[in-house]
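User: Hey, my collaborator sent me this sequence without any context and asked if I could get a structure. I don't really work with proteins. Can you help?
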Amino acid sequence: MSFRRALALAACGLAGGSVLFSAVAVGKQPARGGDAEPRPGGSAAAAVPPASAAPPGLLLLPPAAAAASCPPAPGWIERPAGTGGYWDSNWDRREPLALINLKKKNEETGEEELASRLDHYKAKATRHIFLIRHSQYNLDGRADKDRTLTPLGREQAELTGHRLASLGLKFDQIIHSSMTRATETTEIISKHLPGVKKISTDLLREGAPIEPDPPVSHWKPEAVQYYEDGARIEAAFRNFIHRADAKQEEDSYEIFVCHANVIRYIVCRALQFPPEGWLRMSLNNGSITHLVIRPNGRVALRTLGDTGFMPPDKITRT
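Assistant: No problem. I've predicted the 3D structure and written it out in structure-token form, which is a compact way to encode the shape of the chain:
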């Protein structure tokens, strides 16, 4: 089954069944560092059956809400051009109504009690996510440990760190890819943000998220690379990109230092754009991409690949 067909089935369920089907974009690290850049010139929506057919303890959305947010099969990714799109409000599986236990909901005796329970699951804070692409690094390194930042790359990281500090925000944490170039970029940026904790993760390592459309001639990973990397990068999206927890009282500001392919894929997924379009965007080294996730699950892109704080002679895209 193709990814597009699987995602189409995920959008509205299998023939009205009650199983929550989730399509994962699946797909080895690109050669020589992996930040694929075009050369010059060259969620599933929750399916909601009748209450009697739903699994015990699981409620996604009532039929009316499902009909409003989910178009007829075969789903959004196969809809003809020009017919418009729709927003899956439960894209992160944190829509309050989807979190209420089905059996308990059916036992409710009043709207006030139901409203109270819904409030218990509602997010109250906004998450600000700053996705930073690592700085310029040594492309000739054979292993990851040899792909260290260049002198210019270190300058870029200093400029990025200074820019983030100048925003005057209280950053909560810096989560970074465990690859050398991202770790070194993080260390330099963190000097400008004293006291902000750093967390390393393999989930944000560079890779091939999903086969791009249109394809590019100079970068053609094997199918197994998409299969291996794609699931991991999708897991990174699901782990880190979502609305705030209901217990979070204040807005948060989080920094993620990772790689071009990962950032571009995350942007497409967060905005519910076709994920195959990730390679249509281009990101400079040390650039800042700012995503905002509101308590109601709405997502906005405030900046994409901003390097306006860098002098022109310091800007690269390698």
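In plain terms: Strands lie at 127-133, 173-177, 197-201, 252-258, 288-293, 299-306. You can pass these tokens on to your collaborator as they are.
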